[in-house]
Amino acid sequence: MLSALTNRRRFSDLSEQEVLALAISSEEDDARIYRSYAERLRADYAATAAVFDGMAAEEDGHRKALIGLHQKRFGEVIPLIRREHVAGFYARRPIWLVENLPLETIRAEAEAMERQAEAFYLKAAQATSDAGTRKLLGDLAAAEAGHKKRADALMTTHVDPESEDQENRAAKRQFILTWVQPGLAGLMDGSVSTLAPIFATAFATQDTWTTFLVGTAASVGAGISMGFTEAAHDDGVLSGRGSPWKRGLASGVMTTLGGMGHALPYLITDFWTATVIAMVVVFVELWAIAWIQNKFMETPFFRAAFQVVVGGALVFAAGVLIGGG
Predict the structure, then answer these.
(1) Nearest Cα to Cα of residue 225 among 258, 262, 202
(2) What is the pTM of this model?
(3) Are residues 154 and 290 in the same domain?
(4) CATH of the domain at 128
């Protein structure tokens, strides 16, 4: 790893031919990335996929112009030099890290790519003394800067207001199905199901450390169980709920956090101080669940609050009665 970093060239040390070769390979990479975005989005967001197809075609045009200039100045053989060969040069994230991102994040990633490319061409133009090369690189910098306008024009062509609204609603629905719904189910399970064992232990033993251990065990165990159940029971292919591992992660983590919220106060050695703080945390958790249901699941707030608070209060009372008895 260290040798790979030390073997990189500095941009200032590149020849004009190498700068052109770097620009050519960068345009090839960006066109490939845009086409990957288009394929990733085509099934669910056909209009936006058409925009990325158009941006890929733009990059192809830049690449052809650069290759023509290289042939004119340096011949047919283009040196093999890529972004990763240049120290401190901007890099693209691997496509497999980006392809499952939400629609808005992919659009933002594309905008960042254009800004980075513009900065590269401006720097490359400063590094050459040939007037024709300098002009082409400056034109490409202006083209990359204008890609935002070009993307807006493509959006106008391919994405009418109705299509954009449909795509945005589809993206929101996918986010809810993949992250919010399993995360909310986990938070509810972790917050409510652990109330009885934690507070039963607390009132039965009045030992804060024992209560903390029981609460931690209940929370972690519930998180593991909920996470694996969510990931295993639906692969997302037919239901369209997205990656099972994402859903399992959301459910497992939120279940654990829901239980640990009112287990952590029992790190305080004074029993009644810890118990009062735990009760306050429970109150906040239950109202947070009601708020999430209202915001993302469009459940009327007071109905959500009634369901969650009453359910939580019953489980809490059961724990106190069992422990106090």
Answers:
(1) 258
(2) 0.56
(3) no
(4) 1.20.1260.10
